[in-house]
Amino acid sequence: MPDPFDALRTPVTPSQPDPMFAARLRARVERALSVPKGASMSDLIHEAAATERARQGDLAYVSLWVPDLSRAATFFSTVLGWSYGPGSTEQGRQVEGSTPQHGMWGAQERPTLHLCYGVNDIRAAIERVRAAGGRADEPTEEPYGTVAMCEDDQGMTFSLYEWRGDAERGPENGRHEGDLSYVTMEVPDSAKARSFYGDVLGWRFSPARVEDGWSIDGVVPLMGMAGGRRPATVVPMYRVDHIDDAVGRVRAAGGTATDPQHQPYGISSECTDDQETRFYLGQLP
Length: 285
Hints:
By secondary structure, the chain is an alpha+beta fold. It is 25% helix and 31% strand. It has 6 helices and 18 strands. Strands 1, 2, 3, 4, 5, 6, 7, 8 and 9 form a 9-stranded mixed beta sheet that branches. Strands 10, 11, 12, 13, 14, 15, 16, 17 and 18 form a 9-stranded mixed beta sheet that branches. A hairpin with a 5-residue loop joins strand 8 and strand 9. The radius of gyration is 20 Å and the shape is globular. It starts with 18 loop residues before the first helix and ends with a strand.
């Protein structure tokens, strides 16, 4: 007779959950462990999420870089319901009410999402960028704070922003339709990128379920990294309430969208706009 406990002798193999699901779970566990002993979890969960301070390495601001600003503004207004305020120049727009703060910048040769990372001490962060083989301009004082333009050691541009003392941490994957919910950094060499951003921002990484894919631990919004990709680029995911309707709007506006696919974290579609700007839609819990 077979031993009913034979199954227990099978070697244990680690699971490979979806990176977005794993990152969300990890962030929630970290928050739970920070609750004071004896406190009521039901009373503190929403309060803690609302009052937690922004951390070094979180995204402070993003900007969608596009060839034609007017076309992009019309497309994403149609698909995501974005409305805009003026930017600092005629080639800039600010997406109103977005989380995190989101801009749009025109006259760019190649579409991508420009990322601005929050840091605690911008001068110290600039020195880390340079020491890691990147390039960093001197910081400038703007009406909204202190910033510096940078480039990593593989040619990807980014910015640094010095957190102000009252900066609150944003949500893991957006709150409302049109919010940024996930970011994928596509890089030529993931080992170099992980070393660079680990040194500069203190990021930690966990293997994801795809080859040379990595979850970036403990940042908001949730982020991942994929190696072996040229040219380096950043691909956003935007939150939607009803993905079938959103996919229809993408196609009607002249873009492309895959049929929605069920994932562990929700339902997603891979898309491009009418200027070949890549992005994802995500219907999330």
